[in-house]
Amino acid sequence: MARVNGQAFSLLGLPSPPGGVREATIVNAEYTATHTVFSLLAGNVSIKLDFLSPVSPGNYIRQSLPFSYLTITAAPATGDDDIQVYVDLDETWTGQSGSTGTIFSTSDVTSVFRLVVDGAERYTQNAMDQALWGEVVFASRPSNSTRLTAQSGDPASVRSLFANNGTLSGSVIGKYEAGDVVAIAQDLGSTASAASVTYAIGYARDAAVNYLGDARASYYSATYNGSIAAAVHFLDDYADAEAEASTMDSDIDSKATSAAGANYSDIVILSVRQAYGAADLTIPADTLDTSDVTLFLKEISSDGNVNTVDVIYPTFPIFYVLDPEYIRLVLEPVVQYLEMGRWPQPWTIHDIGSSYPNATGHDDGQAEQQPIEETGNILILAYAYTKASGSSTWANSHRALFQSYANYLVTNGLNIASQLSTDDGAGPLPNQTNLAIKAAVGLTAFGAMYDDADNYTAIGKQYANELYNSSLATDAGKTHFLL
């Protein structure tokens, strides 16, 4: 909510608003690679709600912090206007209802609410794959010219108090009843110029991922112990994070537009947060060793698998461009597991865990079977990292594993048995052209990685020649490839 000269306005749809609260008018909405911004009009005051989710591949602390910024800017049209703003959260952020505990803390000038699920065991989640074992974190601090108040309790009472008075009571109850809210208000005072306040909102997990029975913590944990310290640093870092985000937004937009026009740029900038928001940058929870970094990627909007190889594959172009080390970081947990010999099949595994965040492998060999798809993918991905990074050290350290997969493609990559591809909704089919092409490219990639070792490049090119020039995979007139 915003309150302007005593009149309260609902911003973006307040559920069950108190009596007398009016709806602000949405004037504009826009997005960039890192920002989503809504512009509204509350009386004669312009309100901007700027949601910033930093994407900072080269800054592992910033990238691993599980928070977003909400900056509210109020700009009076004329004269002095008396302005207050208000934000609250409820327990839907915890993934359940009725077992919520709330903790309010202050650290210097920063006020922090934390919402937890009482009694939740590590790695538990609800039916929608929403984590239950972490903490919802909601924090803010006053600026030099604003005054912060906080309150928790019944939403009707808390919201009515702000709507009527522009402040909150400071009562932060320890017991959270179902349906309660936690709220932070900021009084901007009487101002004739634009004024801003910033909130931090996120969800922190003490253990981010279970990798083969060992807990992996978010990278920032090595420097900031606990969610309060992390949230304080996150707010401290706002100016630098915003400056980096602004540069990234402009750079991605201009380069994507130059490559293929404005429509393409819209798709690219919309994809950035999708890619990085699904990733956890981790270190061992027991040692917090920052030299042992791995990336875990959740297969979102399907079955929640961990580090699915044919999900890493369409993700890698953004890593290739922004920071190719992320290709290695996301492949490392897969490769480590495969080299342990616990995966009994001769082809590359589909994923290393059926349900995020449990990367517990498939020692029984019963992961989704996509033999050619994933085997071709991992060779192409390894080569992409080698090419983008300019280093062959990592590839050389895993040469025996990759060569076994190249050999598998030599034997099985042209006349292909009935199996699934990444388009697994279509079901298994024999001799799929896209799989044969992937095998040919995978073999060529392996050859390029190791200076055409044992002539794998020539075999890949031979397969490509048979698919196209010999019409194995085309219609008779070679006008199109067949399925």
Gross morphology is elongated
| Largest sheet strand order | 4-5-6-7-14-11-10-9
Sheet with most strands: 8 strands, antiparallel
Gap between N and C termini: 54 Å
Description of the molecule:
Helix content is 34%, strand content 25%. The chain is an alpha+beta fold. The strands form three sheets. The chain has an eight-stranded antiparallel sheet, covered by helices on one side. Strands 3-2-1-8-13-12 form a six-stranded mixed sheet, with helices on one face. The protein has a five-stranded mixed sheet with strand order 18-17-16-15-19. A hairpin with a 2-residue loop joins strand 5 and strand 6. The radius of gyration is 26 Å and the shape is elongated. The model has no long low-confidence stretch (mean pLDDT 96).
Key terms:
single chain; elongated; 6-stranded mixed β-sheet; about 475 residues; 8-stranded antiparallel β-sheet; 12 helices; alpha+beta
